[in-house]
Amino acid sequence: MANKKAPKKISQKNGLRMALGGLTGLLVTMDISMWLRSHGAEHGHAPVWMGYPGFFLVVGFVGAALLAVVAKLILFPLLKRDEDYYAEKES
Amino acid sequence: MIHPSIPFFFAALALPFLPKNLRSGLSIFAPAFALAIITGLPEGSTVFHTLPGFTLELLRVDSLSRIFAIVFCLVGVFGMLYAAHLKDAGERSASLALMGGSIGVVFAGDWLTMFVFWELMSVFSLFVIWFAGTPESRKAGMRYLLLHVLGGGTLFAGILLHRAGGGVESFTALTTGPMTTGAWVILAGIAVNAAIPPLHSWLTDAYPECSVTGSVVQSAFTTKTAVYALIRAFPGQESLILLGVVMALYGVVYAVFSNDIRRLLAYHIVSQVGFMVAGVGLGSPLSLDGATAHAFCHILYKGLLFMSAGAIVTAAGTGKLTELGNVGRRMPGLIIFFFVGALSISGAPPFNGFISKTMTIAAFGEAHLIGMEMLLELASVGTFLSIGLKLGWFAFFAKSSEEAEPYTPLPPNMSAAMGGLTMLCILFGVWPDLLYRALPQGAVYHPYTVSHVLGSLQLHVGTAIGFWVFLGVLAVKPKIALDVDWLYRKPGIFLLTGFVGILKKIGVVFQKDGVEAVYAAVPNSYDVDGKRVPVGLSLFWISLFVGLLAFYAWT
Question: Do B302 and B444 fall within a single domain?
């Protein structure tokens, strides 16, 4: 009986997914509460859109996507060579 | 008064003559002793050497030179501890001399002294590369030498032009007035050592070919000495802003597709130095202090990252991400060292990158250069993407495809050195004032505000989600990527061999149709040996002449 009721083991993938999701939720909640509290107040030098809740979350995601696509899908196919590319003819 | 570089040069000279069991002790003691000297140095210039016509200012101390010298000594201590298991003296002698050269540059008060130490640094870093002893390191060292001869020559030409144009002898800012030709040429010479693209390829080419202990030492000195020279001589030189931002992104893009972990880290030197160069270009007190603080923190966490990478290479015998995997399960202690370094470099609180990198970025915000600020944030995203996530995931946690061979156990001194730098990364992260109060410009900056901390954490989590989504795209491939060094490794080499071939052919033509034809035309069969003066007789005349000259000069 005890064996049957034991909770299902969480896989590595699901564990990471839960951790990331939890962190995202926590950070967005904190950011929204900060934004609501300081709304209308002086933001110093930064433009308004930089203070929107979750802005840097989006920057991180979009930045990672941009780098992955530009670097890995566009530049890398042009620049990649075999590892012995230099070794063959230099010696 | 002892010049702080003397312990380094003394130890470098003495090391080969010591018994093997004393070498490690002396090589660690030398930077520690220099650190003690530096903390006791009074401000101002104290050591001079007079030459006919001008005076060398060998030791000039102010808060900027002091802070660079302190971190050079700190990383020197831990770098030598990391190498303490070595038996041979050669690499450590070269490393110590390299450190001595850097210390000499940061304390140099005039351009000539600076240049002499600058060149010493180049020469001994070349020997650090060559002591890896592999054919690849020998070739990479030759290419390193070529670029640094070019850079050093440019710097010297710039100094001569600067002096000929009536510029001041002392090593101070050249941006107070309009930039002269000499100043531009000096800037180009320094740009080689600062690894500003397209002059960066010596770094990413040679550093991964060093031995694991050599690359730790290399990562700290050459580029950061150049950053010091830029802060000293070119604060507020606006062209550096764009160059720095381009650098920061360039390094990140190449790091995204690097497979060799040490090459990946080398590209991140280019990227991180970009933040400093951009800060120097902006030239506000906050950005200059940001560049100084970032150089300080960068030396610590980059040393730690190169140490972790070296530990992986030592243990697994390879540094290629495609052949690694599961390192985390097999070397659990290394996870802490590596991820402290990785989170430091991407600027996550509460590690030391957070308190220094955000200074530069905040300075751009303060100057209303929002575009540059966002591009630097993008470089931060790429930093976490390629080190913390890509390197961290594929080396430490991904399933390794190959059958696991037993790992070589690490020497305990390596772990001790990594532990030491980990502590320093955390110490300066949680106690930023320890660093801030030593900064030369005295800019006020508070890193631990809610918006800074939340912003940085969001950036990291957002990047992690992006990595998760694009994991398939970012998977490493066993390939290399072409960089600027292709120019002199492929077409350059063809041009050179072609040119030499043409010269040889011309030589043959001259020999046949010229020299031999003349001999043939001379009547009475020309005897070559009959017209030559014997070597002994020549020597006699030469020594007589030199003796007369000496006598004349003496009387």
Answer: yes
